[in-house]
Amino acid sequence: MTAQGLPNSDGRRRLLVLYGSQTGSAQETAERIAREGKRRHFETRACAMDHYDRSKMAEENLVIFVCSTTGNGEPPDNMRNFWSFLLRKSLPATALEHLLATVFGLGDSSYPAYNVVAKRLDRRLQQLGVKELHPRGEGDDQHPLGLDAMLSPWLEALWVSVLEAFPMPEGASILPPEEALPPRLKIKILEEGSTEVASSQAVPAFEPQAKYATHAAPCKVTVLTTLTMNLTLTLTLTLTLTLALTLTLTLTLTFTLTRIAPCKATVLSNKRLS
């Protein structure tokens, strides 16, 4: 099936990667897929399933699900709510018929419930009308070469299926690995007295079984020049007995720090929820 055959296709090449991760491996896999998607000129986003706004699902065309299996076949903590949503009996069999999707599971074949979460998710997506983009993939942590032994060949075949459905823009080519991708975050220093509010997208670091609330309210951060000078002086005295090269670097650092002026910056804070 091509993108033009989807009910809500708007011609945009968007790729959403939703993951359920307990220890971080599924999240790393999802972020790898998103990076490879960028190299193929997709608008990509990787997000935990429970952090995704399900009301936006109707706007998606292409979704890759990545999930691990925990314990005795339980879904990871950050996909439990999403999974419960998919299991609602009120959802019609055509609820997700507009989606092209596939699933990659991360598991351990030494456990009886090997990749059972990915298998259940794949089956449920098909029951809700999802069009299969590519056969489900399964990674085994017990493989001598680790999860990557199954992930890499699966991805290679996946991108063939993806580009058949969403061809590359005319004249475009896949960005080579040595070419750097655009930065994920941008930091802007505002002059003192500026009323401008910088906007950015927070990308929280993964921490198992932790819940955070993201606050976008700006706060003022003031760097005191005098405090910086005192701190730098202490470091310089401590390193007076080091090699000449190290001392030179210290003096350069001192010069840089003492030129820091009071400024105001917009920050996004992560606050642990009880």
Can you describe what's shown?
This protein has helices at 25-39, 80-86, 116-127, 148-165, 225-238, 244-258; strands spanning 14-20, 43-48, 62-68, 100-107, 131-132, 137-140, 189-190, 212-215, 264-265, 269-272. It is α/β, with parallel strands linked by helices and 274 residues long. It has 2 domains: 3-165, Flavodoxin domain (Rossmann fold); 184-274, no CATH class. Strands 1, 2, 3, 4, 5 and 6 form a 6-stranded parallel sheet that branches. The chain has a two-stranded antiparallel sheet with strand order 7-9. Strands 8-10 form a two-stranded antiparallel ribbon. The longest helix is centred in the middle third of the chain and has 18 residues, at 148-165. The protein is globular and about 60 Å long.
Enter the CATH topology name of the largest domain: Rossmann fold
Count of spatially separate domains: 2
- Helical residue percent band: 25-40%
- Listing every helix as H and every strand as E from the N terminus to the C terminus, the arrangement reads EHEEHEHEEHEEHHEE
Beta-strand percent range: 15-25%
Topology:
Elements lengths: L13 E7 L4 H15 L3 E6 L13 E7 L11 H7 L13 E8 L8 H12 L3 E2 L4 E4 L7 H18 L23 E2 L21 E4 L9 H14 L5 H15 L5 E2 L3 E4 L2
Parallel strand pairs: 1-2, 1-3, 3-4, 4-5, 4-6
Antiparallel strand pairs: 7-9, 8-10
Helix pairs in contact: 5-6
